[in-house]
Amino acid sequence: MSAQPKFTEKKYLTVFLFVTSLFFCWGLALTLGDVLNRHFQHVLHISRSRSGLVQLSLFGAYAVMGIPAGMFMKRFGYKKGILLGLGLYALGAFLFIPAAADASFNFFRFALFVLACGLATLETVAHPLIAVLGDQRTSDQRINFSQSFNGLGGVIGPAIGSYCILKAGQAHSNDLMAVRDLYIAIGIAISLLAIAFLFIKLPALQEEQPVTETPVPVKPLIKQKHFVFAAIAQFFNVAAQGGTWAYFINYGHDVMGMSDEQAGYFFSLSIAMLMLGRFAGTALMRFIAPYKLLAIFAGMNILMCIIVAAALGWISFVALILINFFFSIMFPTIFSLGLKNLGQYRQQASSFIVMGVVGGGLFPPLMGLIANHNVAAAYYLPIICYLVILLYGYSYKRLAAGF
């Protein structure tokens, strides 16, 4: 029997840790968007369905930037791809200065779009890079581990946003100055991170080898059924994430009678459950096949959504928090499963899977149309998404075999 494959190798450790820190950075940015969603409803006097366009600006950038980022990475390499992503991230953050001065919702959406183009570039580069920093058989574990720090950024994002932006009674709780100042700080931090990365040298990397014992030609992407379904599943996965997160604070306010600040802190707790779920998922994958665990967690979230939509008080609110625990492994596991055995097509495939993130921009406005009248009932919609993910996990082995 072959020895248990290593998680990664010593020569890759510095790069692995740095790239893992990038997962933290985009987790912070994405969950701050959900705090902005609620704040803009108050300060700019917009409806819940219109505030959902914040998510469209964030996640829509993935559809626009996914393929260009993949082409850039293929031509210029992983390192320049990461520097491009960090540069766009910082630029978008600094665009909050004129957006706040104009008090323009559309200007904020443009700033978020530029920032999210940076996030899309980072995700397009980081996932295939993490996949090749060690044995392909442990790529699911590496991606889930790194995505755990995306969860950590997600915990800190709404906590910072709730304290700096939503906290009642502070000097700028009813204007946009706190938003501006927070994003200036983020822009400076990301700029410093980009400068630090200039001094990191990437080791020589080898393209992944198929895990099958008998070498076989790598088929074009369109004929790789496990990849095609992964791109579809990722669209529905991020759609469910975007909708669930966008109206979490509204649910805490409307159904539970909390202040926005209190609901924001509970949102941070729910992201902590996501981080916990990713660490737990990484451990469970040593014993349960990733595609089986994906199907189990999707089934659990169907149950959680039914309970949330029933508006049963604290029972439903706990279920809303637990959605993130079971959601935890879905993004990285779908990504990793979709990239397996693609050889030279792996970078191109990463671009297409990243484009699926646009689902997170299209779904919140749809949920918002229901949330305008009943925020609890809006949580019936993500059930559709989890059914698609359950089907992908259930059928993955057959898809990967080409049937």
UniProtKB/TrEMBL annotation:
Q: Which domain of life is it from?
A: Bacteria
Full protein name: L-fucose:H+ symporter permease
Q: Which GO terms describe its cellular component?
A: plasma membrane
Q: List where in the cell it is found.
A: Cell inner membrane
Query: Which membrane topology term applies here?
Result: Multi-pass membrane protein
What PANTHER family does the entry give? Answer: L-FUCOSE-PROTON SYMPORTER, PROTEIN TSGA
Q: Which UniProt keywords apply?
A: Cell membrane, Membrane, Transmembrane, Transmembrane helix
* NCBIfam families in the record: fucP
What organism does the record attribute this protein to? Chitinophaga agrisoli
Q: Which SUPFAM superfamilies match?
A: MFS general substrate transporter
Annotated Gene Ontology MF terms?
fucose:proton symporter activity
Mind telling me which residue stretches traverse the membrane in this protein? 12-32, 52-70, 82-101, 107-130, 151-170, 182-200, 227-248, 263-281, 293-315, 321-339, 351-371, 377-394
Identify the Pfam families for this entry.
Answer: MFS_1
